[in-house]
Write a structure and sequence with these properties.
The chain is mainly α. The chain is built from 13 helices and no strands. Helix 6 crosses helix 11 and helix 8 packs antiparallel against helix 12. The longest helix is centred in the middle third of the chain and has 34 residues. The protein is globular.
Length: 232
């Protein structure tokens, strides 16, 4: 039974890798570029205006697929969300697609590798797992708030831990909100920027870093107070 299960997991891993390689090298990848969004701006806006419901659902599903398969284009989609749906509906759709995609990537990583790692190294990971149980939400929130950490890598690595699915879900949804707001706002004013790189200036990244560091203050203070507490 165990052997059959392992064979299934190997097949799923191979299929996932194949899907990622095929999609990254397919014509579809050419559509998710800054230049293409600008070029097709009016056509896309007309499409949304003529069928808003289908357009919004399609947008969420595309975002979900991009995040699940760790494909490039999430930043471009966030810009497109602001451009096509305005700032606040855009943020809402981006958040649903990104959070759902991250959750799927997390679950897949846990199913394929996480469970096996936790089982094999249960004793060695005891202290680490205890720390995650107590403060894992602070760490995840910090990683989500600071935009320098690769989104797909956090999804994958979190899936290898024993952190709860609910904790991963709400920290992702909340943590990506500031960045999503910046991108959708920029998307609403798409004519004023020449490339996605202009959005996150040094000042903006610094502001998010400070915000992320604030999220990690509680566990740090808790540890400091625990060390200073006199033994009875």
């Amino acid at each position: 039974m165990m052997k059959i299960l392992m064979n299934k997991k190997i097949i799923i891993i191979i299929l996932l890798i194949a899907a990622i390689i095929i999609l990254r090298n397919s014509p579809l990848a050419d559509y998710l570029t800054f230049e293409n969004i600008i070029k097709n701006k009016n056509r896309l806006l007309n499409l949304v205006e003529s069928n808003y419901f289908i357009s919004s659902i399609s947008f969420i599903l595309i975002y979900f697929a991009v995040i699940t398969l760790s494909l490039p284009g999430a930043a471009i989609l966030s810009l497109a969300g602001g451009m096509l749906f305005n700032i606040f509906p855009g943020v809402f759709y981006v958040n649903i697609g990104a959070t759902a995609g991250a959750l799927m990537a997390f679950i897949v990583a846990r199913y394929l590798l996480g469970g096996k790692i936790q089982e094999k190294y249960a004793e060695s990971l005891k202290k680490f797992n205890r720390e995650l149980k107590n403060n894992g939400h602070y760490y995840l929130l910090t990683l989500r708030l600071i935009p320098v950490f690769p989104f797909f890598l956090i999804n994958f690595l979190a899936g290898l831990t024993n952190i709860r699915i609910w904790t991963f879900f709400w920290t992702t949804s909340l943590g990506i909100l500031p960045g999503s707001l910046v991108y959708t706002y920029a998307g609403r004013n798409l004519g004023s920027i020449d490339s996605p790189g202009e959005i996150f200036s040094t000042k903006v990244i610094l502001a998010f870093t400070v915000l992320g560091l604030f999220a990690i203050v509680p566990p740090v203070l808790k540890k400091l107070f625990a060390k200073q507490k006199p033994e009875l």
